[in-house]
Amino acid sequence: MSALPPKAPLPRPKLVAITWPIFAEQLLHMILGVLGVWLVSRLSDGAAAAFALANQINLAFMITFRFVSLGASVVVTQYLGAQDHAGAADVSRAAIGANAWMGVISCVLIALGAEQMLGAMHLPPELMSTAKPYLMLVGVMLLFDAINFSLGAVLRANTFTRDTLRLIIVMYALQMALGLPLMYGVGPLPGMGMEGLAVGAIASRAFSLWLHVRLWRSRLGIYPSVTDFWRVRWSRVREMLHIGLPGAGENVAYRSCYMMILAMVASMGPSALATHTYTIQIVQFLLLFGLSVGFGTEIVVGHRVGAGDLQSAHRQVKGGLIAGIVVSLLVTLCAALAGPHLLGFFTKDAAIIALGAQLIWFNLLVEPGRTFNMVVINGLRATGDARFPVGFGVFSMFFVGVGLSWFLGVHMGLGLVGVWLGYAADEWTRAIAMFARWQLRGWVPHARRTRRKVRLKAG
What we know:
Strands 1-2 form a two-stranded antiparallel sheet. The protein has helices at residues 15-41, 45-81, 85-120, 128-157, 161-184, 194-220, 234-267, 270-286, 288-307, 310-337, 339-343, 350-383, 387-411, 416-439, 444-458, and strands spanning 185-186, 189-190. It is globular, with a radius of gyration of 22 Å. It has 459 residues and is mainly α.
């Protein structure tokens, strides 16, 4: 069936109304990730190690799904801002098919190369029999995740962030309700271990897919057909990848740099690696608000650009930036004051706690710069200016972030303090460049070009 777009103009999206459900959703993802590690650690330390490595492979594949979903989110907001509901629906359908194929490819690659992938991650041979079956099941889960990424991105672009939050809550509740009995066993049924947790995740993702389709019908008036799940609309895919490839490429570069710095930290010894690991676990929660404001800003700015209201888009980014920085500083300050107590949840080693607490104080330098980047880069991307952030970002992450972390942390012997100074230098180098790009209106030609393109396709 064809889409049934609403005739009345959509109300202008409000940043706060969009951001808080995104924040809650991201928080749930993090909590479930930590909970998963804790649950598997109850089986054995070896199972926890196998679980963690398999999930690193899982995350690597999930980054590729952002090529389409991120691009779809931005392009859909632009069409909606221009009141071209038919164009937004067509892009939405194209996102389903493109990511469905990405999911199929991921599933096949894992099915054929699970053992080789785990071997490349230096998994101890004695853990292969534990990790390989789990990773094979994760491959099936990725097929559903790929499609859900696109379906959820389109709902958020249409400002239905509360609905996606409710859906995520239901999905995770089902995953735990099924996964825990399958994992540990119930009654006469023996436990399946990690594989039971994966089976619960697959079932919850399949149910989530069904819920997403129902929400598309009730909220968007879009009725996905069977062909939407396998047909590739190349003209629309190219439109999405123009935004999605640079955006996801930035994530790939960031992750690559992080792995390089992690290797440096590992060379400093087990104590430094443990300190870094525990501190990063805390920092991940601190960046949630900036991340959510960035996603919300992207949605709102995309609508403004599609409507041709560039002044409002400019004010929105500056307003989101101020809110993000103030809250991130306050949250980081609270974490720094409570640093020893927070680190005490992970270890009783006094030296690790003391150094980790010091690093959280240093994070007061890192977090405002990181918030700058998450808000302004998402704003630039929403205007169609997607290549500058990734081009400059790759330079800064590798030469400033990695380079300075090595020089200060390894060469100058400052250890983890030097690494954190490298983190801060990279974030602020990019922040200054991105803010200058925004203030000097380098994004305006891209926004005007995007607006003309949307109007041309609508006409």
